[in-house]
Amino acid sequence: MSSSAVDNREPETDHSAWFAETCTGSHLLNFVGCNSFEGIEGIGVGKCITSGIFTLCGYNWTIGFYPKGKWSLYDLAFDLNLKGDAKGARFMITMTLLCQNGRTPRVCEHPSGAVILGTNGSSCISNFVFEQNHSRWCFIDCINYSTVRCTITKLNPLNKTSCKPHPFAVQPSNLNEQLACLLERGDGTDVSFNVNGVTFDAHKCVLATRSPVFRAQFFGPMKVKMNESIEIKDMKPSVFKSMLHFIYSDSVAELEEAGGNRDASVVLAQHLLVAADWFGLERLKQLCERKMYELIDANNVATTLTLAEQHNCYELKAACMEFNKPPEVFAIVAQTEGFDHMIRSCPAILQELHQFNVS
């Protein structure tokens, strides 16, 4: 008698993986007095103005700017030129128009796909064309100031690797989500805060783990009593709520979500920066600095500069000083309420600005 057995197990399968590292950098190209291009003799359709050479990702580049369009009037166009040998390198390029009219900024992005540049001398990428509804506003209707941000990402391929599939799948950690749920449910809370009449319950151990100020407050020589409610002064309840959420979840959704209200994001970032500095939340402070840097405009730069000075945000301060350098921009900023507040709060900054602008 013969017998047979059927093996229903999944066949063993090998797989290979290809990994890539990236190097990303951005270059800001400022245009001051852009609507004067209308009157420049000889700057017509197809005429190019070339920037100085700048270095990103280890390569030298220039930007070619066509103020009257490359192929048609007002279809604003840019060329990105690589100076040298790319050796077949792969790049991702994004051109972004950051337009500033003194009141309302407009941002127009134009990303490319993956681009492989040639190896025979200079290479040119010329598919960055902004149509009339964007380019006409930015360079004809705006008040003399626009910026182009060129972001370059170089893809560095690594060697292929082969490995056998692991029989055990491990779920990614969701500890932050679980802690956020713990805060939302209020299970096991042992401390309460009174913020302008609004009560917030929390966990001492979590707060003390994240903040040296809370650690000293709860477990240091001057620790508060177990049944004592802590009053938080000079802070809005909404700001304290966002700070608590960050302490538990390590994120601030209002700052990270795209497409939100710009002005509200700036105000929240400014208030959270103050709170983060006060409670020693360094990562939250850095997130706020980055958001404020991304949203700098003529309306908020004076307030941002004041906060940067008061809370030792040196890189943010340098960015604000650079933003104020063009005389046309500084004239607009000087008319804002934030500028008056800056002079009252940090009068020495005005002298720094004047020295920086003439340097």
TrEMBL record:
GO biological process, one term: protein ubiquitination
Gene3D superfamilies hit by this protein: 1.25.40.420, Apoptosis, Tumor Necrosis Factor Receptor Associated Protein 2, Chain A (2.60.210.10), Potassium Channel Kv1.1, Chain A (3.30.710.10)
PROSITE patterns, alphabetized: BTB
Stretches assigned to the BTB domain: 189-256
CDD domains: BTB_POZ_BPM_plant, MATH
Residues that span the membrane, as ranges: none
Pathway(s) where this gene product acts: Protein modification; protein ubiquitination
InterPro entries cross-referenced by the UniProt entry: BACK_BPM_SPOP (IPR056423), BPM1-6 (IPR045005), BTB/POZ_dom (IPR000210), MATH/TRAF_dom (IPR002083), SKP1/BTB/POZ_sf (IPR011333), TRAF-like (IPR008974)
Family membership noted in the UniProt record: Belongs to the Tdpoz family.
Descriptive protein name: BTB/POZ/MATH-domain protein
Species, as recorded: Rhynchospora pubera
Lineage summary: Eukaryota, Viridiplantae, Streptophyta, Embryophyta, Tracheophyta
